[in-house]
Amino acid sequence: MSIVNIYIHDENIYNVEKKPPEKPPKPPLYHSRFEHQVRQETKSCKDAHRTMGFSKIPLPGPADFLRKNCGPRHRATKSAPVRLCTGHKPPIPKPHEPSPCQVLKVVDFRKENVKKVVAANPKKPRPRYADTRKGDFHDLEKSGLMPIYMCQPKFGKVPQYLTRRKKDLAAQKDRLIEDRAQQQPRCSYILQEERVELLKGLKKNWEKLQQEYQSLPLLTDTVPKMIRKAKLENNLKQLEKDILTIENNPYIYLYDDDQKDA
Q1: I need a labelling partner for 184 at 20 to 30 A (CA). Which of 63, 97, 198, 259 fits?
Q2: Do 250 and 217 fall within a single domain?
């Protein structure tokens, strides 16, 4: 184990604080090489307007004060009169000639009002009831004592929307019955002749498969031979099962699965 002796100590607690990072110096400003040329051109343009007018405006003399009716007079120009009505009015009719305007019909409003009042229906008194001896009247229709809904002409009748709904349901039912009648039956019966032909065909297929099965080699040592043997056995079993079902069931019906899915 070695011992290190430190004789010079440069550490100070005031140097532990973090100092802010020093900012980098700013780059020099950009000066265009055409700067002096632009300044000279602007000065020359400004100096060109110094010859316009007096350098100092002269003050008016004391004798040139403003007098009455001495200033410039501006007269308004007369414009053409504006006519709101462009068309010419009709001439005034003579006393014996009829007026071109529409002749107003003279109406006797008194007689018209009398006719309306006579033809109008009499106003029915509002039904009320008094519940106190002082004669405090209240509305009878809003009280609930008067049978309002029973007196209506539609009370006790079937609404129109229900009758329309019943007609629609009956028409829908008739359409369903017609569609079912037009559809072909899903089940079909096999005749005896077809059944016998089907049995003969199954037995012929079984004989062919039996011959193929018997012609297989005795040693099945490869995978293709094993697969072929298993396939033939499954087909023979299925044919035997189908032959038994047809022989045991004299009546056979066929069901169309495609029509059911559709």
Answers
A1: 198
A2: yes
Q: Count each helix (H run) and each strand (E run) in the chain, helices first.
A: 6, 4
The domain in which residue 213 lies consists of 187-255
Any domain includes 236 = yes
CA-wise closest residue to 91 among 101, 103, 104? 101
List, for residues 206-236, the tens digit of each pLDDT value: 999 999 988 888 888 888 888 998 999 999 9
Q: CA–CA distance from 63 to each of 29, 60, 135, 240 (Å)?
A: 61, 8, 102, 148
Q: For residue 30, what are its two tokens?
A: 């950009």
Do 195 and 174 fall into the same domain?
A: no
Residues 153 and 191 in one domain: no
Residues 261 and 241: beta-carbon distance below 8 Å: no
* 191 in a structural domain: yes
CB contact at 8 A, 148 and 141: yes
pLDDT value at 159 more than 70? yes
Q: What is the pLDDT of residues 19-71, one digit of tens each?
A: 778 888 988 998 999 999 999 888 877 665 565 665 677 787 888 887 887 77
Q: How far apart, in Å, are the Cα atoms of 138 and each of 70, 75, 132, 150, 207? A: 90, 82, 10, 21, 105
Q: What is the rounded end-to-end Cα distance, in angstroms, of the chain?
A: 97
pTM of the model: 0.31
Q: What is the pLDDT of residue 262?
A: 45
Do residues 235 and 210 both lie within one domain?
yes
Question: Do 251 and 243 form a contact (C-beta atoms < 8 A)?
Answer: no
Shared domain check, 170 and 208: no
Quote the percentage of the chain above a pLDDT of 70. Answer: 79
- pLDDT at residue 164 in the model: 94
Total of domains in the chain? 2
Tell me the β-bridge partners of 139. Answer: 128
